[in-house]
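Look over this record as teaching material.
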Amino acid sequence: MAKLTLISRAYCHLCQDMELALRPLSAEFGVNVEVLDVDADPELEAQYDELVPVLLHEGNELCHYFLDVIKVRDYLSKIR
């Protein structure tokens, strides 16, 4: 099963929006979404601080700020 990683922060409304928007895609493609708090990890904060939310698959950035549903759906279709 594929796993997507969402780099997020607790007080970020864009992060919450992306997490909610990912739910239908997650269900459709049977992928797990791991949410990591950028503020809990100095390395993540140094790399992604102002870009959150960031959606990754195996370290590859799929999108940031807003969920690109078409791009992510196409990507997930290819890795199935």
Notes: The two ends are 9 Å apart (CA to CA). Residues 13-29 form the longest helix (17 residues). The beta strands are 3-8, 32-37, 54-57, 60-64. Residues 41 and 47 are 10 Å apart (CA to CA).
